Amino acid sequence: MMMLMWITLVLFSQTGSAQKNVLHQPNSVITAASGENVTLQCIRTNKKSTDPIIWYKQAAGHEPCVIVTIQKLAPNPIFEDEFKSPRFNVENLKESCNLKINNVEPSDEAMYYCGIKIFTIQFGKGTFLSVKDDRDVKVSVRQSGVLDSVPAGASVTLQCSVLSESRAAELQVLWFRAAPPQSHPQIIYTHHNSSHQCESDSSTHTCVYNFSKNILSLNDTGSYYCAVLLCGKIIFGNGTLIKLKESVDAVVICLTVALGVCALVISVQALLICNQRNHKQHTKGETTVKRSNQTNSQDHEFELNYAALHFNKKKTKGGTRTRKQTQEPLYSDVRSLTAM
Fold this sequence. Notes:
Blueprint: H1 2-13, E1 23-24, E2 29-33, E3 38-40, E4 43-44, E5 53-58, E6 65-70, E7 78-79, E8 88-92, E9 97-101, E10 110-117, E11 121-123, E12 127-132, E13 139-143, E14 154-164, E15 172-178, E16 186-190, E17 196-200, E18 205-215, E19 222-230, E20 233-236, E21 240-242, H2 250-299, E22 303-312, E23 327-337
Parallel strand pairs: 2-12
Antiparallel strand pairs: 1-4, 3-9, 5-6, 5-10, 6-7, 8-9, 10-11, 10-12, 13-14, 14-18, 15-16, 15-19, 17-18, 19-20, 19-21, 22-23
């Protein structure tokens, strides 16, 4: 029966798991004795929303049923026939829409969901109401409250004291974990008969159960509940909240140092490359200037042009002999030409 209940809860909770959570139910589990008054909280994440809120009840082995519909602007909530009783009331506030159950009865034990109707109905994570009937079962579960924040990797030991009128062998003690990502508490450990220490007197039995857990990451944090399964009922303790101490991860430190070293090496390499380029450009400039000077010096060398004059010798008077004319060049002028 209990297994069927949890399977049903998982299937129902998946309806709105893929949607954005616009409602928040802060209490995963509430334990109350018969005759007590309880308040199931449902907080609006969007305070300006005017969409209707609907409360649902899902008892073990039953389909969810509507309890009440609340219109934010309407004066009165609309209860279904089964829940038109003075025991059920709605506290409709600006930031929340809470369901109040007075004088709780064993039949009130169930999962309670609040939903908001936008285009489809989006649900909160749900609250399980556990009702202890002292007339039937004389069992109480006691737990310590909030533990101090623990560092990642630390091991914690949770303690649970079970007081009952039944023998310890007849009790089945479980540990549940409830965290915001989950829609309902998850069973994480079951105690065997040899995993506890008990003391008995004439009327009661007191058994102490210890549960050790390594807190490695945020996935291990949350509220841990000790619960007793007896005669088809689950009796929860108050729960122990475990938080992770905020600390800088060693891996993050190593990565930061490595990043800094890489940045320094890259900066030094960039500086060396720039210096090498500047040196090459400077050397190339000197070579170019030297070659230019040599070219200019060659261009400015003197170019000599020679102008030759030719004179013909005349015949000697009175001579009978004819001589061949000879030409002897004489240089009359030397000019120098320079390249402008």
